[in-house]
Amino acid sequence: MRLPLAVALFLVPCLAAQSAAELEAVVTTDLGAFRIAFAPDKAPKHVAQFIELSRKGHYDGSGFHRVLANGMIQGGDPLLKDPKTPRNLWGTGGLNLLPAEFSDLKHERGVVSTIGIPGKPDSDGAQFFICLAAQPQFDGKYSAFGRVIAGIEVVEKIAQSPSAADGMAEKPVRILSVAIEKKAPQPFADTPVTELRRKVTLKTTLGTIKLEMEPDWAPNHVRAFLMLASTGWYNGTAFHRISKGFVVQGGMGNTRQDGAGHPSDRWVHPLKGEFRQEVRHVRGIVSMAHGDDPDSATTSFFLMLGDAPYLDGRFSAFARIVEGLDVLDAFEKEEVNEETPKRRLEILEATVE
């Protein structure tokens, strides 16, 4: 059956956007690699151009020529492929290729956006910059088209490279390659709720604890926890809080000793609270921590050392300890400075059965 021309023309960009949304870029540099997920619904032409140029090797051998610690990095100028390019020409190549595509995508930490010619509208090109902090002054003025989903610590390292007063790097950090890959599927994202009742083993500094998931209580928190455990995200993170008679808390990425991110960071996002008043926060229950916003839970969880009914209906309990309650006793005996353990206590390995 032949589709009407109008329908066919409508489907082409839709299919292209769908295809781009299933891809990500792996940017390998002198200082390590990071990954970018695209936002084809916000800037389809910019996404398409970045993918096409990357596949052609356009960025390979270029570099990041502008670096601002805790601010941003800028790169992708093809002129930098030639090491003899004069410093005063850095950042002048690969421009004037595309009209702007402004959107509501904010220039937040990790967001990737496009450089144009200063003072000339619709002069976007192949160069791009990555924000390391919120840059609201760029919103509506530059075309954001993606976000760093893994390896943000590499971007930070690049930003800390030696630079001159004008922000130009003393020596550009080389982009060795930009590869376009198909996104890996998120573990447990589509698993039926009836199949989420799994067991997770936590090997810790003080012994082994086995948890049984309770998807009837908080299915989305169970999905998130299983994803983090199965991909090794929790491995090497620390228990940063012991409140005697109350909780043992851990599961924060910034407690890894090397400070590195993890490829599964791409799937970490705030979870909407799944609160059940009838689920009691008693000894052995596992629940997810959140900040002042009840919908801000991400990775940090706590193990109940005692009963705390005032948490019922306010925090998302999602599992219970079925083996290793004696390990809880060991945690409670640890010396603390206020609520901080005096020695490092880790999740050595988390596995899903």
How would you describe this structure to a colleague?
The chain has 353 residues and is an alpha+beta fold. It folds into 2 domains: 164 residues, Cyclophilin (Beta Barrel), CATH 2.40.100.10; 160 residues, Cyclophilin (Beta Barrel), CATH 2.40.100.10. It is 16% helix and 29% strand. It contains 5 helices and 18 strands. The strands form 3 sheets. It has an 8-stranded antiparallel barrel with strand order 1-2-7-5-6-4-3-8. An 8-stranded antiparallel sheet has the order 11-12-14-13-15-10-9-18. Strand 3 and strand 4 form a beta hairpin. Helix 1 packs across helix 2. It is elongated and about 65 Å long. The protein starts with a helix and ends with a strand.
Strand count, sense and closure of the main sheet? 8 strands, antiparallel, barrel
Contiguous low-pLDDT stretches (5 residues minimum) are: 1-15
Strand content: 25-35%
| Count of helical regions | 5
Helix content: 10-25%
